[in-house]
Amino acid sequence: MTLKNAATAVRLNAHAPYSNFKVGAAIRAVSGQVYVGCNVENVAYPEGTCAEAGAIAAMVAAGETQLTEVFVIANCPAPIPPCGGCRQKLAEFGSGDVTVTLATTDGDEQVTTIGDLLPGKFDASHMDRS
Ligand code: THU
């Protein structure tokens, strides 16, 4: 299954009764395995989670920690920009040159990279004082 098809399908499972904005994400891990996630909202709003976070959690739960490709889709006027927190989450598990395709359900796509999505990212080197 393509990442696009996987993200498109899982988006329909999103639990988004508060925003009515369903998001689907699919990531390919270094093994080739595809992991999917959708946003899961909560009546206590800050407890909601993003689609990307769900896909990453599924990957890590399966024992993988390196992603090689990402696809995110939503019903929006322009390809969905991942939120800031999700950019940092993606950067935790993928190098700067990993391709991220952002899409609308109308078929618009924008291809970018983790590095372009999060320039100047915080990483472990920033905690090194030695
Ligand atoms: N959302 C995602 O799932 N991913 C993003 O990158 C942007 C926002 C979700 C969170 C919330 O459930 C809804 O979209 C509206 O913000």
Automatic annotation (TrEMBL):
Substrate binds at residues 39-45. Its EC number is 3.5.4.5. SUPFAM superfamilies: Cytidine deaminase-like. The keyword Mitochondrion does not apply. One of its GO terms (biological process) is pyrimidine-containing compound metabolic process. It comes from the Bacteria. Belongs to the cytidine and deoxycytidylate deaminase family. This enzyme scavenges exogenous and endogenous cytidine and 2'-deoxycytidine for UMP synthesis. This is Cytidine deaminase. It comes from Parasedimentitalea psychrophila.
